[in-house]
Design goal:
Helix 16 runs antiparallel to helix 17. Strand 27 and strand 28 form a beta hairpin. The chain folds into 6 domains: about 80 residues, no CATH class; about 130 residues, Calcium-transporting ATPase, cytoplasmic transduction domain A (Distorted Sandwich); about 70 residues, no CATH class; about 230 residues, no CATH class; about 200 residues, HAD superfamily/HAD-like (Rossmann fold), CATH 3.40.50.1000; about 220 residues, Calcium-transporting ATPase, cytoplasmic domain N (3-Layer(aba) Sandwich), CATH 3.40.1110. It is of the alpha+beta class.
Length: about 1200
């Protein structure tokens, strides 16, 4: 594996006479070897006036206006006071958290009460708990007290075991994390190892290279003499690029072991903002402002810096990473929401049955009131001890009330308690197969599919709208330099691909060759201009252009070893892929960035190694939309380089100079955008000594201000970034990910509307829309790019009229594409114009939103969610997509180049956009079909059982006695019928993967809710009533004149209902396998075994009953008759429906079954079919073709 070495100067700059740029040195002890011939290119500080040389970092990242720090002072009541190197005084009030972390939810003592509390948040569990408590009362005892508690106890136990295992894993991870060690400054005056969990706020910590930070620290000093440190935040936000942090000059040269250090830091209270920090430090009587570039957060790794020393400022649960560790918002699936509706209907049915039983019981008691003195179960008097006492009778009113409560207990399983645990297990199994699916595995990043939210798997099968980011989601976010416009001349390799050159520029360092790690296409004409005409005006502009690309960034060059000892690769690390592409482009043209420190950079300019001092840097921010750097050249001149978006750059350009160049540059930018390229404009300005001194003085005041420092720095940047001279523009290609056009086409064929929400400019977004086949030449584009509310209103009204007033045939053929920008959305979202936008967008096949802000993305998703019942899915890869992902019904994060913020906020995560097709069309379809059927089946099987009990109550004087034993009632939902439905819910497939991908239109069944709706629920209930009648009355009629007792016929009913519901399930299974066979038929066998075992226990009712009835032929005849009579109507309805009114899935299943589907043409027409192949021809003759 290649090793990395830093290209950082770790020692003071004393210009020795060495002639060559030295080899990279990994530590400061050998840094004296890392000195080049800098005397000939030294930038003399005195040229710029006194003190300029010490201000090499002015305006650097350390003082970025992005932070917005120190905009106000911190009141004492809101401040955290940290005494440096005095943890005892800092923690004297015991108000600060220790550094021990705990992500586990439970402890040994709190597990049972807290877990039960969380589980009983489900109202259904409270319902079953109340039923179990009622059964404990003597007056209401229907089942044995233990048996009534068992179902609920089993469900609670299984869930508790699952939660306990997950929490044990969290405890183990916490233990490993807390016992790691770090170097902490001790009272003895040296650094010694200390466990992370023992670190306290205020202690001084030393971190070595490649170590992870144990807490949030403010930097005091680093191994670099200028105070810079490089960190990697991959554990914090997933970004692997290096970021720079700085120590303040006031503490930089103070070593705790020698001089000691003491002071005070007044900072804000712990908060979740990982990009902000507001504090100041009081040291040696001075007050120094601190910002986000002075703090390094827990979880970051130190890179390319030998060591840093810092003071612990936030520890343990108060660190920013721990405060941000909460998961994404909880979401509920659409099926589960609908299931609550059916649960309420079943509750109403349950109350109706209980009321009927109670009323009829009251009528029966009134009719037989004269016989109640000696009637069994209703004796008014007890004469057993020659005493006349009341016995088991409380009057008709109370008896009716008791009968109602007893009926609730007997019929309680009408609400299937096993359904909830079954759904969790099925979702777990579905998630396992999605994670293991090879078609969802990203070979490039070696990442598997992640299922972060188990409770919405089935929603993947009902998506109607997909909202997608562009950069990094549809594209690779791997930028490649394509072309440039310099001094109004277009150097575009796209014009003539045969002229493209892939030459590699190498830098000779000693006896080694260093070359960039990435090759870039170069334009031969531009290459010749730089080589042969450097002294011309165009040549000078071209050199300044590429120096600007090399200098105006925060890229850090790293050297990577190769198998060839004479060759090294320069790898450019940075926060922005755009910056990396531009620096690689400059290197390809001979401007190789080989070293960067906080104070200077070294660029090999066409073989001549030169040092450029970085005198100031204003970073990019969303308001200015540009960044700038002040560079001191070897010839002692000072220049300001600025790069940014064209919308911001042309406003600060001096248009009185070179107007023709500006005009040509704008024309080239338009051409680049139309090709889908990302564009940046590069400008320059020469600074005189007076201008630099003025900026230097203003910066000194702004950077040390305690109030409004961020706004002052931003105003300073805006002031100096003016009157620029255009150097040129760049075009960078962000290539589409593999399979994106095909994926979008499949999604649209599936009836899914794809909306793209991007921050890119309109021309770039439209070009990408054509590239990915989102837009087509046949579409009519409706463009809304307006900067006033009334104009937006008028344009929306016109657009709506346009979409509605087309003739019939033309309207059916015309497709509309709405293209709208963020400036227009400012006047539309959260106003009365939202409804107008919705009407227009709903009429369009494609919506493309460009230049949109993150909150506008969420607003677009909310626009659809508020006004339709359609399921929405949002997919993105960056932090700017988090709000959109969390707003949608289903959020998917792409593990891309922009970190893991989107992944951490998502419900599912994957590596490529094209994986959306198998995820939705295959797994989503399967998950929805399985879960929808499983819910209806659970309602059905429990309803059949309850109706059998109800019919029996009608023949037992409404006394609520049961023929089916209490243990069979308990085991019915646990052992007899639970496992087969779980297996089918995980493994069954109505159609194969190949078929679902070939015919995306099949996905529409989930959108139309064909497998779960109120009509199917009602039909299922009717079916359960019929089957319960068959199960109850066939044995009743067969044995009504015999001497068979209730327990014996109860065993027959138990076996019959279990066989019925399992055969019912078997009839609906699409694909049989060994596991399905084993569980379904095994459960029937297990029922026989359990009934036999129960009847061999002498203390239970029905002792030996099953053996007596199994000896008779009537027993076996009843079982067969029940199955035939019970299943015949369902079989007939199924046959008639599939014969006369088949749906698309049934048709395709039949074609797939007879292996005709793969032999057909690629046409999307599939002829209607029935049970036999010969019926296909008959249906075709009847012209009843079905178009998917």
């Amino acid at each position: 594996m290649a090793s990395e070495r830093p290209l950082l100067d770790l020692s003071p700059r004393l210009p020795p006479p060495a002639a060559d740029l030295p080899k990279p040195i990994p530590s400061s002890r050998s840094s004296t070897r890392f000195r080049g011939s800098l005397d000939r290119i030294n930038f003399a500080p005195e040229v710029l006036g006194p003190g300029a040389g010490a201000a090499l970092r002015y305006g650097s990242r350390a003082e970025s206006s992005r932070s917005g720090a120190s905009q106000k002072d911190i009141p004492d009541e809101d401040a955290r006071i940290v005494f440096i190197n005095d943890s005892a005084r800092t923690n004297s009030r015991l108000e600060f958290a220790g550094n021990s972390i705990r992500t586990a939810k439970y402890s040994f003592l709190t597990f049972l009460p807290r877990n039960l509390y969380e589980q009983f948040h489900r109202v259904a569990y409270i319902y079953f708990l109340v039923i179990a408590i009622l059964n404990q009362l003597p007056q209401l005892a229907v089942f044995g007290r233990g048996a009534s508690i068992l179902p609920l106890a089993f469900v609670l136990f299984v869930t508790a075991v699952k939660d306990a295992y997950e929490d044990w894993r969290r405890h183990r991870s916490d233990r490993i994390e807390n016992n790691r060690t770090a170097l902490v400054f001790s009272a003895g005056g040296y650094f010694c190892p200390k466990r992370w969990k023992q670190i306290r706020v205020g202690e001084i910590i030393k971190i070595l290279s490649n170590e992870t930070l144990p807490c949030d620290i403010v930097l005091l000093s680093t191994s670099d003499p200028t105070g810079v440190a490089y960190v990697q935040t991959i554990n914090l936000d997933g970004e692997s690029n290096l970021k720079t942090r700085y120590a303040k000059q006031e503490t930089l040269l103070r070593a705790p072991e020698k001089q000691g250090i003491a002071g005070l830091i007044r900072c804000e209270q712990p908060n979740r903002n990982i990009y902000g920090f507001h504090a100041h430090m009081e040291i040696d009587g001075k007050r120094v402002s601190l910002g986000p570039s002075n703090i390094v957060l827990r979880g970051c790794e130190l890179k390319n810096t030998s060591w840093v020393v810092g003071v612990a400022i936030y520890a343990g649960r108060e660190t920013k990473v721990m405060l941000n560790s909460s998961g994404s918002p909880s979401k509920r699936s659409r099926l589960e929401t609908h299931m609550n509706r059916e649960t309420l209907l079943l509750s109403g049915l349950l109350l109706t049955l209980c009321t009927v039983v109670a009323v009829l019981a009251g009528i029966w008691l009134g009719i037989h009131k004269s016989e109640l003195d000696l009637a069994q179960f209703f004796r008014k008097r007890d004469y057993s001890n020659n005493e006349d006492d009341n016995y088991n009778y409380y009057g008709i009113g109370m008896e009716v009330f008791f009968r109602f409560l007893m009926a609730v207990i007997v019929f309680q399983i009408m609400i299937p308690i096993s359904l909830y645990i079954s759904m969790e297990l099925v979702r777990l199994g579905q998630a396992y197969f999605m994670i293991q699916d090879a078609s969802l595995y990203d070979e490039g990043s070696h990442l598997r599919f992640q299922c972060r939210a188990l409770n919405i798997n089935e929603d993947l099968g009902q998506i109607k709208y997909v909202f997608s980011d562009k950069t990094g989601t549809l594209t690779e976010n791997k930028m490649e330099f394509q072309c440039a416009s310099i001094s109004g001349i277009d150097f575009s390799s796209i014009k003539d691909l045969t002229a493209v050159d892939h030459s590699i520029h190498s830098v000779i360092v000693g006896d080694q060759y260093w070359r960039p790690n990435m090759t870039v296409k170069t334009d031969p004409d531009l290459f010749r201009l730089l080589r042969n005409k450097r002294d011309t005006e165009e040549g000078k502009h071209a050199c300044d252009f590429f120096i600007a690309l090399s200098a105006c960034n925060t890229i850090v060059p790293l050297v990577i070893d190769t198998p060839d000892p004479a060759q090294r690769l320069i790898d450019y690390q940075g926060e922005s892929p755009d910056e990396q592409a531009l620096v690689y482009a400059a290197a390809a043209y001979g401007f190789v960035l080989v070293e960067r420190t906080s104070g200077h950079i070294i660029i090999d300019v066409l073989g001549d190694r030169q040092r450029f001092d970085i005198l100031g840097l204003h970073e990019f921010d969303s308001d200015r939309k540009r960044m700038s750097v002040i560079v001191g050249f070897p010839d002692k001149t000072v220049k300001l380089f600025v790069k940014g978006a064209d919308s911001s750059m042309f406003g600060v350009v001096d248009e009185t100079k070179n107007g023709s160049i500006i005009h040509e540059t704008k024309s080239h930018l338009q051409a680049y955008s139309s090709l889908g390229l990302r564009t940046l404009v590069i400008g320059m300005r020469d600074l005189s000594r007076e201008e630099f001194d003025e900026w230097h003085s203003s910066y000194e005041k702004a950077s040390t201000a305690l109030y409004g420092r961020g706004s002052l720095l931003k105003a300073l940047a805006t002031n100096i970034e003016s009157n620029l001279e255009i150097l040129g523009a760049s075009g960078i290609e962000d290539k589409l990910q593999q399979g994106v056009p095909e994926a979008i086409q499949s999604l649209r064929q599936a009836g899914i509307k794809v909306w793209v929400l991007t921050g890119d400019k309109q021309e770039t977004a439209i070009s990408i829309g054509y590239s990915c086949k989102l837009l087509t030449a046949e579409m009519t584009q409706i463009v809304i790019n307006i900067d006033s509310k009334e104009s937006c209103r008028k344009r929306l009204e016109d657009a709506f009229v346009m979409t509605r007033n087309l003739p019939g045939m033309e309207a059916a053929k015309t497709q509309f594409a709405l293209i709208i920008d963020g400036s227009s959305l400012v006047y539309i979202l959260e106003t009365e114009l939202e409804e107008e936008l919705f009407r227009v967008a709903a009429s369009c096949h494609v919506v493309l939103c460009c230049r949109v802000a993150p909150l506008q993305k969420a607003g677009i998703v909310a626009l659809i969610k508020k006004r339709t019942d359609d399921m929405t899915l949002a997919i993105g890869d960056g932090a700017n997509d988090v709000s959109m992902i969390q707003m949608a019904d289903v959020g998917i994060g792409i593990s891309g180049q922009e970190g893991r913020q989107a992944v951490m906020a998502s419900d599912f995560a994957m590596g490529q956009f094209r994986f959306l097709v198998p995820l939705l069309l295959v797994h989503g379809h399967w998950n929805y079909q399985r879960m929808a059927y499983m819910i209806l089946y659970n309602f059905y099987k429990n309803s059949v059982f309850v109706f059998i009990l109800f019919w029996y109550v009608l023949y037992t004087a409404f006394s609520l006695t049961t023929a089916i034993t209490e243990w069979s009632s308990v085991l019915y939902s646990v052992i007899y019928t639970a496992l087969p439905t779980i297996v089918v819910g995980i493994l069954d497939k109505d159609l194969s993967r190949k078929t679902l991908l070939k015919y995306p239109q099949l996905y529409g069944s989930g959108q139309r809710e064909e497998r779960y709706n109120l009509r199917l629920f009602m039909l299922t209930m009717v079916d359960s009533v019929w089957q319960s009648l068959a199960i109850f009355f066939i044995p009743y009629l067969a044995y009504r004149h015999s001497t068979v007792d209730g327990s014996t016929i109860g065993d027959l009913w138990t076996l019959a209902v279990v066989m019925m519901v399992n055969v019912h399930l078997g009839m609906d299974v699409f694909r049989w396998n060994s596991i399905t066979h084993a569980t379904l038929w095994g459960c029937i066998a297990a029922t026989f075994i359990c009934v036999i075992i129960i009847d061999t226990i002498p203390v239970l009712p029905g002792y030996w009953a099953i053996f007596h009835i199994m000896e008779t032929w009537a027993f076996w005849f009843c079982l067969v008759a029940i199955l035939v009579a019970g299943m015949l109507p369902r079989f007939a309805a199924k046959a008639i429906t599939e014969f006369f009114r088949p749906n698309d899935i049934q048709i395709t299943r039949e074609l797939e079954k007879f292996r005709n589907i793969n032999d057909r043409s690629s046409s999307s027409e599939v002829a209607m079919s029935t049970f036999a192949i010969h019926q296909q021809q008959q249906q075709q003759n009847d012209s009843r073709d079905f178009v998917l």
